[in-house]
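Anyone else keep sequences and structure tokens together like this?

Example one:
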Amino acid sequence: MRSIWCCRAWLAAALLLTGATGAQAAEPAAPTPVAAPHFPVRAVDEAWRAALPADPEQATRAYLDRLSPEARARSDAYFEGGYWLILWNTLLGLAIGAAFLWTRPSAAVRDWARRVARPRPVADALYGAFYAAASWLLSLPLTVYQNFVREHAYGMATQDFGAWFGEQLIALTVSVIVSALVVPLLYAVLRRTGPRWWMWGSGIATGVVALGMLVGPVWIDPLFNTYKPVEDGPIKRAVLAMARADGVPADDVYEFDASRQTTRVSANVSGLGGTAAIRLNDNLLRRASPPEIRAVMGHEIGHYAMHHAVKSLAMLAIVLFVGFGISAWAMRRLLARWGGRWQLPAGPEGVADVGSLPLLAAVLGLYLFFATPVLNTIIRTMEAEADLWSLNLAREPHGLAESMLKLAEYRKTEPGPIEEFIFFDHPSAKSRILMAMRWREQRLP
């Protein structure tokens, strides 16, 4: 379900502070920011920023004009290609569901699982594991193109195929284990709830997402990256000071080696409650200036302070509630017409049969495809709120604007309003820089 990723809440906190103890020892110099070689941005100095016009529109245009036409075209092509990938992934999901049902491997595996495992939950677990592995294999060609070939073509990826494919196998293992645990739970509930199964099903789906937020940072993320404490210095002291001031329950700041996979910058406070952890990727520490780090981390702490993780989970619960309701209506009709050919009973009995899982996944996936603008708007609104929090907390409008130019490496900078509404889960670079320049205008002498 491609759209659910945007309901994860990635949160973090930081502020660069300076200071000394005793004899006023000098702090180590900040590293010189490194630009992405495939996406040059015209460098400027503090005099250029000071000379920017007060008018927010003109200042925003000055920032955007630092992107060359070639860089802008490259970014637009990459992002617009993602529009088609949303469609191709949805069509692939429908094709996989059709392959499972019309050629009847779904019924065959269900019957085999019931023969070799008498307890129904164990049989459902075997089916869930098979479904996860087979779906992964059938989608592998598109996955290789989307996440390896295309990323390398645009200069975003840094792994060779062997290392990349090794991580895909790790992800497959996690998916198989999770499916073997969740599918028996889901269908045990469906068999006991009758026609109202969809209400309970949406609750289970929401609970799984919440559990992922809790355990993902602790158990899953370390399978793909190495996390180590950030070296003592102004950055670390700033992050911890901001975290403690705004209630982030963290005692350390961690750096993870994202550069071995990608050139993108990122940071987060991932997890909920006691699992919350402040984490910066090494690309951000190497490529960003101190004002940019202050702005980025002010944004991330805004997510945490405004409880965006919990709010997004609540909104996702509503979206899933509607989606499962529509799925119940659609599955009732589809099973009544073709259930016999799929070797599935009609009515609630067919829905409660684990062999109908490909049908549920296909119908719910199609619903989430059409719900993409809704999900994107939920997240985009929270991202704008976090930007405003950052401006008032870090007070770095230029740092925020500069960081947006880095994100422009893979996000279209100036979409049309309808395009931004449908496809953008973050505000566009133009919208975010304009917000920063408006904040700056109000605070100029």
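And example two:
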Amino acid sequence: MRADQFHFAIRKFEPFETFLKLRWEEYCQLSGCKLQLIAEAMDLPELHASLLTENGLKNGKWDLALVSSDWMSEACDREAVRPVESLISDKDFFNAWPSSLLRSQKHQNKHYGVPFHDGPECLIYRKDLFEDPAHCTAFLARYGYILEPPKNWQSFHDVARYFQQADTNLYGTALAAFPDGHNAVYDFCIQAWTRSGEFMQPDGNVNFQCTAIEDGLSFYRKLSHDSSALHRDSREMDSVKLGMAFTRGELAMMINWFGFATYAALLKNSPVAGKIGIAPIPHQPNAQPVAPNSYWVYAVGSGSTHAAVAMDFIQFATQPLNDVALTLGGGIGCRKSTWSDDSVNEQIPFFNDLESLHDHARELPDLAQWPAIAGIIDEIMIKVASTTQPIAEILLAAQSAVEELQKNTQPKTV
């Protein structure tokens, strides 16, 4: 690595890339930093491999990276990222963010990253469709109850079927079913948690054999095979492609990350701008609402020779005005002040709903071996969606696989 270069690994998403490059230019102008930015944007599997599997954060390939909160236990276990307290002069620095956006990167009472972009998963829907009197009347006549953002999974399926009009390129909903170790894993968690199903045991072991999980996967299989409710491209969609389909006006509703709702609201000439509503994810009557919480953090590579510059840039990029700029540019600012900012809520009327969503925020299990477990869950979801194998058999095989994984590895809760 050249000493006059600063290497930054970024999650591939145009609003992220644009924001970070503009902030770096501003930072260099204000600080006098002469380092040349070498930024590379990558999709999830490629980014994880470069940062952690190939040790890019530890061996000095990357000075700074956007790291998913899902990977932070692994990153700390590999000693790939460094704690940032020693690089910060303000002892109250972390008070700007809610506790739900600090948990995943805090280990042994030290912070190993700073929130960049968040937005829990939620139900995102077309208000104009749900509030249309003609639809309200027709839905009531067909299903016998009022059309509203669905509160449980049966009504979610009913609503998806009602709005399906594939001949006009409007679909009831879609799944981000592309197997990338991320989206389907969250769908697994959603189907379990919204039925009060738990697969993590208090001792850190995994138990997939649970009635609520089996029920959830049965519903997921039913939905994933229902061409009368689902977008035709669901098998090829990740969360970004799912969000883009909604932005193009192709979906009546979706379960996706909050950030895609703001992106759709702000995009120039967006056909759904001003028509977007936010609601909790459907859940069964015996379960509590849940908002799966995965977010992106700035993390400084443990092998970086520019750690002080990296943290100085982070402090600049996360200032209140810059956090607002990220939000109005299509990302999701993480500071509590941004959630209530007048300029933000004027352009994104549902933005202050973030506070209530975070009341139900829940992260993935905090295990160093989680990526391997996520791979097993991904395989569960592939088999559920693409085969007719009994779900009980799929879960039994997965249970054997995870027990083999954990046999010689003491589960490490951090």
